Amino acid sequence: RLAEEERLREEQAEAERAEEEARRLEEERLAEEEAKRLEEERLAEEEAKRLEEERLAEEEAKRLEEERLAEEEARRLEEEERLREEQEAAEAAAYDEERRIAEENRIIEERRIEEERSRAEQEAAATKEKKKVSEDDDEDDDEAPIMDDTMIDVPEGYTYQDGWYYISETGERVERIGIRDDYYENLPDELKPEFRDLFVEGKKINIPRFPFYVIEGDNTMFFRLVFTFITRYRKVISIELLDNLYEYLVNKFLDNSTVISKLNDKLIRIYFARRKEKGILQKCEAKCREDVEYCFTNVPNYPSNLYSYKRLVMILERTDRLAEARDLCRKALEIGLVDGTKAGYKGRLDRIEKRLEEEAILAEFRAQ
Known about the structure:
Elements: H1 2-123, H2 128-131, E1 158-161, E2 164-167, E3 173-174, H3 183-186, H4 192-200, H5 220-225, H6 239-252, H7 257-273, H8 280-298, H9 307-318, H10 322-335, H11 344-367
Antiparallel strand pairs: 1-2, 2-3
């Protein structure tokens, strides 16, 4: 019995040891699984962190690339604007040089005429009074007149030819015949001092053969020639006085579409020369649109190098309204307009379409 009890105790102790060993092994297994799980979570977190860092790095690289492309595009546009300005400056310089040469030729021709007139006076004393009138009142050869002789009011007893009045009975040439206008009288008071300085006393600009305005006198030739030479006043005349003169002449020649278009041409040239002044570029664009519509509607034989059309395209291009500028270039090619440059409207169209394509590509890239 004791042996049996001892055996049972040993078996029970062995069972307890086995059970304890099983619990230990199970705890070790659970500990290993927990450690494995924690390690997997750590590795997963590290992988997620690595992927997030890669994503952020890619986004930063993409942003930097977009900024680089935008800077390159800005530099390209700035360079194109500089080249356009240089081209316009070169064209303006060439135009000024042509005007200078024409002025020199005119002066030489004027001197030659004066010498011939002096010799004629010496040879024919009987006709001295008739010949002593200075040729300085003739029109400048280098600036085409806006109005022709058919637009001059000729009172009874006079005839008019080649810029001069003649007494019908005697044939004597006279400068003024007493036709009185009310322009100065109706001019706003704030513009009268400036008008007197420029066109009555000639203080700022001296133009040979240009008849100054005579208050309460005959100013037929003044109004005939004032807009012929008005671009020479472009730096000194106020926009208010310029607009006032323009409106007066437009109302005076409402029935002559050719004269109206020429007046518009001169006004647009001065507006564009003064475009940096506040609001003048907008006035220039509006007058360009008005003149283009007016010529297409009212001037049967408008010039193929219509200045207002060309200037409107240039303004639109300068202000990045490329779609409208492109459409105007296409229309110009359809109706046969020219812009006076070597490439013409075809060259302008190609340049504008290239800019539009580049902007579309840039916009698509930015959208992505």
